[in-house]
# Entry
Amino acid sequence: MRTADFNFHLPPELIAQHPAPQRDESRLLVFHRKENRLEHRHFPNFLDYLRAGDVLVLNDSRVIPARLRGVNAKTGGKFEILLVEENSPNDWWTMLRPGRSARPGTEILIHPPAAAVKRESLTTTVLEKSAEGHYRLRFNAVNDIKDLLEDIGEVPLPPYIERKISGLSPEDKERYQTVFARSNGSVAAPTAGLHFTPALLEKIRALGVKICFVTLHVGPGTFLPVKAENLSEHTMHSERFTLGADTVRTVNDAKNSGARVIATGTTTVRVLETVAAQNAGKLNVHAGSTNIFIYPPYRFQIVDALLTNFHLPCSTLLMLVSAIAAPDATNGREMILSAYEEAVRERYRFFSYGDAMLIL
# Structure
């Protein structure tokens, strides 16, 4: 398949710039795969499609305030830093703009936001540049930069969300985070989980649905375009994950009994299918990283249904959704693009702060 096959027209005004007034007030497009049928609902109606014995799997990764701002210690030139991956305390791979001004040895003064607790500027030193264009930085004279991020960092909103002062809004600090987030590490939210409230989760449990968690720390690669013309030539970005014993037991029991496993978000799908592919279709306790690239045709071994948001044209996320629309077949692309056309006509809100889609 070609990357261009996953393109579609999206009016810019449908890109959600703010979340719904309440988390669960988003709309929900329900796609019934067998009948190739759509329903227009609202997110609380998600409960109508659940049944006792189902397993709902969520990603509990927590977004860190990963965007930092600073200036060149010698020239005063401004830098924007996005923390990507920790090598060890105070040693990080980052995305750095403008990169042309960041030669090895460059010292950068980190400036906390104006609203932050007053503290002396920290410094970081550029160590090297990777083949992928990432910059390795060492943070100086601090025990662990992670302990300071709540004071000096900003919410790493995706590039399509526009703010006059990026990442400092109290709304974003609260809403660009799921209510069940608990494991620090993501630089982008697992957005399908943003719609849940504590009350809604309790109602789901009351239906006899088992809720369990995986942890996949979402990296900036989730927003990167697929540059290869053919999907078979694309190298997927890698993301760290952990899969614990409770989830392994719950999901394996569900598969053995014939109960459904409903994944919340493409990140959850990637964890479950990665581990199953390495373990003869079953889950086991696992910690590592995955660069699995799921696109049509793909035979899913764990996931039976998917709750997700609406994704960017030509993105790996859209390709995964197309695969689950028609498992082990190639016509899922046409089915999803047709559903997206309907979503555009009905003025659904797209991307991170947008509406949701349930694929059954």
